[in-house]
Amino acid sequence: MKKFIIDPMDLSVDEINELVDLADDIIKDRSRYQDVCRHKILATLFFEPSTRTRLSFESAMLSLGGNVLGFPSGNVSSATKGESVTDTIWTVSCFSDIIAMRHPKEGAPRVAIRRSKVPLINAGDGGHNHPTQTLTDLLTIHREKGRFDHLTVGFCGDLKFGRTVHSLVKAMSRYEGVRFVFISPEELMLPDYLKEDLLDPLGIPYKEVRSMEEVMSDLDILYMTRVQQERFFNEQDYLRLRDTYILDLKKLDNAKKDLCIMHPLPRVNEISTEVDDDPRACYFKQVENGRYIRMALILSLLNLDHEVERL
Amino acid sequence: MKKFIIDPMDLSVDEINELVDLADDIIKDRSRYQDVCRHKILATLFFEPSTRTRLSFESAMLSLGGNVLGFPSGNVSSATKGESVTDTIWTVSCFSDIIAMRHPKEGAPRVAIRRSKVPLINAGDGGHNHPTQTLTDLLTIHREKGRFDHLTVGFCGDLKFGRTVHSLVKAMSRYEGVRFVFISPEELMLPDYLKEDLLDPLGIPYKEVRSMEEVMSDLDILYMTRVQQERFFNEQDYLRLRDTYILDLKKLDNAKKDLCIMHPLPRVNEISTEVDDDPRACYFKQVENGRYIRMALILSLLNLDHEVERL
Amino acid sequence: MKKFIIDPMDLSVDEINELVDLADDIIKDRSRYQDVCRHKILATLFFEPSTRTRLSFESAMLSLGGNVLGFPSGNVSSATKGESVTDTIWTVSCFSDIIAMRHPKEGAPRVAIRRSKVPLINAGDGGHNHPTQTLTDLLTIHREKGRFDHLTVGFCGDLKFGRTVHSLVKAMSRYEGVRFVFISPEELMLPDYLKEDLLDPLGIPYKEVRSMEEVMSDLDILYMTRVQQERFFNEQDYLRLRDTYILDLKKLDNAKKDLCIMHPLPRVNEISTEVDDDPRACYFKQVENGRYIRMALILSLLNLDHEVERL
Predict the structure, then answer these.
(1) Which residues of A touch B67 (CB under 8 A)?
(2) What is the Cβ-side half-sphere exposure of residue A179, based on CA atoms within 13 angstroms?
(3) Quick check: is A135 in a domain?
(4) Does residue C141 share a domain with residue C50?
(5) So where does carbamoyl phosphate get bound (chains A, B, C) (predicted)?
(6) pLDDT (0 to 100) of residue C95
């Protein structure tokens, strides 16, 4: 395993399979892993706040018997005194055994690792990468479907700015027989570069549509995202379009019985709460999977993944 | 034991006795409890800051051998992204074994528990409830007096807005032979509903007075609270009245030898520091009791209270 | 060992030797110390943020098997409600076994300890004292040079306001054969009181110069500090002088082979990153030493330093 996880694509298909297997094993019997990281310290350095991601990392480390220190937002870090990210990470790598870092600037993790003495996981750098979210999504797909290949994956909402969408499209493009359906308003369509540089050269089939209803029955996976008002030129457009991208039970009428509905969370109203009790709703399973895949990743980066004999 | 503690009155008299007994047992021999919560995680979610309460919860969990994660104030939570409290708690309940939540809005905990997969303790919701403060007060009364019944309990200061006062009045109303004395300026008298809906129907004797001196010799308990300047219409009224509600050694002249002086803290100047060394000052004993009753409550909610054989 | 460490000069030369010996022993075999503080709680109370110092304390306590609680900045403490520092510390001392406190006001720790039931370490009070930084510097000097006496110690940069400089000058003044060289712009010279009240009466030799080059070859230690723009009357002066106080490889041309370059960090640009790979660069060793000396200090204050048999 590499020492630094910056981009989800840093991981090979084989490495992802290993992580998914390890996470599966952890889920099977958590108690066997509960002391593996004893005396180890995870530093969670969040230069911008992201409570969900931070708590997921901290829960993962504590569930492995390890310890946690860090900061929850940039205004309590000493970056305000003009210190470089390289120096901050160098310093914290003297205090910890592994680092999870969130930073508002794209590319910050590449600068951060220059002097790091310990493994580092990018926990999100601006609109760029967020590898543990992608790994969470992959684990969820694998646990729900038993495979990565031969799936029709729909993405719905803001496909222009949603980094989790871009990353998952890239990650799923590596598997055979995968088809994509992109459901979005015209203003928020998937960026051209992903189609021209990735999907087209690989000959991966995809469709772009304006509404869920017309494609719902084809989907194995429906990945919902938030449509933020500030992405629109004017309020009327936003109000007119918003409801089209809200998933409710009615829109699920002709969906497959084993559709897997995902969402990176937080949601505002793009999935109606009436869907929450539907067995196809997997977005809170994703939250749980996020903890387990982070446990697997921490173990791998600390080279402790073989400390526990697999079941 | 219930799964959720929202209102101190959620607990029956019997359940309170059980908690008090358990806390007493913990105080007798802390070392027997120091590993009971090993591998368990408490989430402290403070949507508004309250350092004293948060640290008390965290100290309680750490003293049981458990772990802690969370956030100390709302501005580092993802509520800012428009997520509902229900979703936030649902998420965090995937990361932890028990939650303590503080929220500025009354009623927030009832919304929060809708999807929680783990026990939740209300650590204060606006001016509404704060059950662990009430339990702290009850443990202190029981440890100092050996009983809850047949006590004359004085409350002094801001009785209009002080939620700890309202809760403790309700909680103590359940015991036989309890009498209340309410000492406050006219502007800050106990709300009518407590008298009309609670005390009068139960026939509980109470007195309302303007100064401590006239009732001091009757009291078994004197519960002091802060008188905040912003509660008054004008500064003159505040300045005129303030000193009347400051407890000093002189005002204790004709108090009982075993009076128990309480305060929920923080204090500003409503108890003169000259009282701190008086053996009747119990407000820092309250702080310690707050830790122990929270240990008892965490153990009960996690169903671990019978893991340790009682002395 | 004392119960409270407020000023680095609170510690005798013998006590410093003991701490340095203990830190050396910890560095030799960390695993022997990894559970010594089990079930103990360190409270880190940072009324003003200082991530480096806080994380160093937390890492130290976790590396001893202990636990940590606290707050990272004043705006999440209840000082905002008008509570005195004495009361806050009294409260927290009911929740913890040892306290590390940072406060923006000089002298705050003396007020803080009045009612503290547990040991307290001053983690910096305004521009005043910062004893664990001084201990970190001393451990670094001792590890690099094997002694405290007969050294020529240069200080460079802002010698007027730099509290770490003042403290280290005081601490090193106690050893035989020590000589000082003070390198600074006229505006930022060492305060007169240190020369007139400390160095002159003890007959300690010192020199004051304007540039590093003229004294570099004499130095055993070069202690760099940040030159802050806001210390200057005008921008021209700052820009004119700044470069003089930036250490680069060229300025090290005629330095001793075993010069020890130190910096309390964070640095902005006063040490060029090209120096980072020079074996004489010791500033990140200082970071590591900071963790170890804090481990030693925590053990001593908790009277656990003799729990582990020395190697």
Answers:
(1) 62
(2) 11
(3) yes
(4) no
(5) 52-53, 102, 130, 133, 265-266
(6) 98
Residue C135, CA atoms < 13 Å, CB-side half-sphere: 37
Whether A53 sits among the annotated catalytic residues: the reply is yes
pLDDT per position as a tens digit, B199-247: 999 999 999 999 999 999 999 999 999 887 777 778 888 887 777 899 9
Catalytic residue among C40, C44, C53, C140: C53
* Contact flag C78-B51 (C-beta cutoff 8 Å): yes
pTM, 2 dp = 0.96
* pLDDT for the residue numbered B79: 58
Residue of chain B nearest A33, judged by CA positions = B39
* Residue A84: closest C-alpha in chain C: C268
Q: C188 and C67, same structural domain?
A: no
**Are the C-beta atoms of C276 and A115 separated by less than 8 Å?**
yes
**How is residue B281 annotated by DSSP?**
B
- Neighbors of chain C with 3 or more C-beta pairs under 8 Å: A, B
Residues A113, A189, single domain; the answer is no
The answer, yes or no, to whether the previous bond of C8 is cis (omega within 30 of 0) is: no
List of residues 6+ apart from B16 with CB closer than 8 A: B135, B138, B171
* B292 and B258 in a common domain: no
Residues of B with CB under 8 A from a CB of A: 39, 41, 43, 67, 69-72, 75-78, 81-83, 86-88, 90-92, 94-96, 115
Q: By three-state DSSP, how is residue A100 classified?
A: strand
Predicted-complex ipTM score = 0.95
**Is C53 one of the catalytic residues?**
yes
CA atoms within 13 A on the CB side of B136: 30
| DSSP letters spanning C129-179 | --HHHHHHHHHHHHHHHS-SSS-EEEEES-TTT-HHHHHHHHHHTTSTT-E
- Catalytic pick among A103, A130, A251, A291: A130
Q: pLDDT by residue (tens digit) across C214-261? A: 999 999 999 999 887 777 778 888 887 777 899 999 999 999 999 999
Does one domain contain both C269 and C146?
A: yes
- Chain B contact partners (≥3 CB pairs within 8 A): A, C
**Chain-chain contact of C76 with B49 (C-beta, under 8 angstroms):** yes
Dist. CA A177–CA A254, nearest whole Å: 23
Is C81 annotated to bind a ligand? Reply is yes
What is the count of structural domains for chain C?
2
Is residue B155 included in any domain, yes or no?
A: yes
Whether residues C273 and C176 share a domain: the answer is: yes
Catalytic residue among B39, B80, B81, B257: B81
* Arithmetic mean of pLDDT over chain B: 94
**Domain match, C275 and C137 both:** yes
B242 counts as catalytic: no
Look up A310 and say whether it is catalytic: no
Residues A180 and A246 in one domain: yes
C210 assigned binding-site residue:
no
> Does residue C311 lie in a domain region?
no
C-alpha to C-alpha distance for C112 and B165, rounded to whole angstroms: 29
C241: domain CATH number is 3.40.50.1370
Whether B56 and C95 lie within 8 Å, measured CB to CB: yes
Residue A130 annotated as lining a ligand binding site: yes
Report the C-alpha gap between C236 and C89 in whole angstroms.
Answer: 45
pLDDT band at B82 (very low <50, low <70, confident <90, very high): confident
Asked if the structure places residue C296 within a domain, the reply is yes
Cα–Cα distance, B8 to B16 (Å, whole number): 9
